[in-house]
Design goal:
about 130 residues, about 30% strand
C-alpha cells in the first residue's frame, strides 16, 4: 500500500512537470507565431516600453518606461505608440483626427509627423509613465 502511494505521488509529479512543459512550449509557440519582432507582445492589451528619445519632453523623457494599453478609440490629446512605415515604434501625441486616421507630433518637436497614422498601426495609449 505504501509503495502504491509513493508510485502515485511520483507519477503525479511527473505528469505535472510534463503538463507545465507542454503549456510553456505552446505559449512560446503561440507568441512567436502571432507577434513579429517589431510589434511588442501585449498580454491583456498592455505593454511596457522604454522611451529612446526626447521627442515627448517634458511629458515623457528619454529613459522613462511607459505603460501602454490598447483602446477601442483614440482622441486628440492622447499620447499613443504606433508602428511607423519603417517598422519603428513611435510615441507621440495625437494632434488631429480624421475618422480612424490620426496626425501626431512629439511635444518637443517643431513639426508634426509625416503622413496619417491608421488605427491598425497603433499599439496603444500611454496610460502611465514610470520616471527614472
Amino acid at each position: 500500500m505504501i509503495n502504491l502511494i509513493k508510485i502515485s505521488k511520483h507519477r503525479l509529479i511527473i505528469n505535472l512537470i510534463l503538463f507545465i512543459s507542454i503549456m510553456f512550449f505552446l505559449i512560446t509557440l503561440f507568441l512567436k507565431i502571432n507577434y513579429s519582432s517589431n510589434k511588442p507582445i501585449q498580454p491583456f492589451g498592455i505593454t511596457t516600453l522604454k522611451v529612446m528619445s526626447n521627442s515627448m519632453n517634458p511629458a515623457i523623457e528619454k529613459g522613462n518606461r511607459i505603460i501602454i494599453k490598447k483602446q477601442k478609440d483614440y482622441v486628440i490629446g492622447d499620447i499613443i505608440t504606433y508602428i511607423n512605415e519603417d517598422g519603428n515604434l513611435i510615441t507621440h501625441r495625437i494632434i488631429e483626427k480624421y475618422g480612424n486616421e490620426f496626425i501626431t507630433k512629439g511635444d518637443n518637436n517643431n513639426t508634426k509627423d509625416n503622413g496619417q497614422i491608421k488605427i491598425e498601426q497603433i499599439i496603444g495609449k500611454v496610460i502611465f509613465v514610470l520616471f527614472n
